[in-house]
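Form 7-S
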Amino acid sequence: MIVLSDADILFKLAACDLIDDFLEAYGLTQLDIRIAKPLRFSAATSKHRKRLGEIAHGKLMEFLRGIADIDVEADADFEASLNEQTLNNIDAGEAALFAVCPRIPNSIIATGDKRSLTGLIRAAATNAICATLCMNLEYRVICFEMIVGRIVRSLGFEAVRDKLIVGRECDAGLRQWLGSTSDASEVRFMDGLKSYLNTLSRETGTLLAQDFWVI
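Output:
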C-alpha cells in the first residue's frame, strides 16, 4: 500500500510524536509514504519549526528525508476541475492528491483537510468530472482521527495517552476529547472520536477507507 500524505497529517502526527506509531499500527515503512515535493520545503521553514518545537520539528524533518516524492503526474482533467472548486474549500494541494491517487495502484490518501473531503462531495453533485473522481476515490481516504483511532486500537490508549496530551494543541478534537490532563480517559476519548468519525462518514459518502475504520 502507498500512502499519499498531505502536510497537515504529518504536522499533527509529529506534534504528538506518533509518526512511528502510525507506521507500526498500519504495518507501513517509510518506503510506503509519498508526499508532494513542495511539502519538503515548506516543512523546513521557521514558521513550522516554531509551531512544532525543535524536537518534534527535527523528528519530522528526519522522517521526510526518508520518504519519496510523488513522481506520477496528476490526471489533468481531474485537477483542472478540482481547481475550479475553491468555493467548495478544495485547495490546490488537496486537489493534486485527489487527482493523482487514481493513477497510483494500491494507493490511499491521508489528509487532515476534512473540508476538502466534504467539498469534493458537494462538487460531485454538480460536476460530472468530480463525480467520476469520487467514484475512483471510493474507500481510499484516511484522516487524522482515523489514524489516531487505529493507533489506540493497535497499541492501547495508555501507551499513547501522554503523547496525545503533549500534542493536544495541534487539534481541536484532541483538546475536546482529552479534557483536562487530569481526567483524560480512554472511554471519553474514544466516545468523542467515534462520534466525530460517524458524522464525518455521513458527510463524505464513500470516500473513507472502511478497512481502517476505528469502530
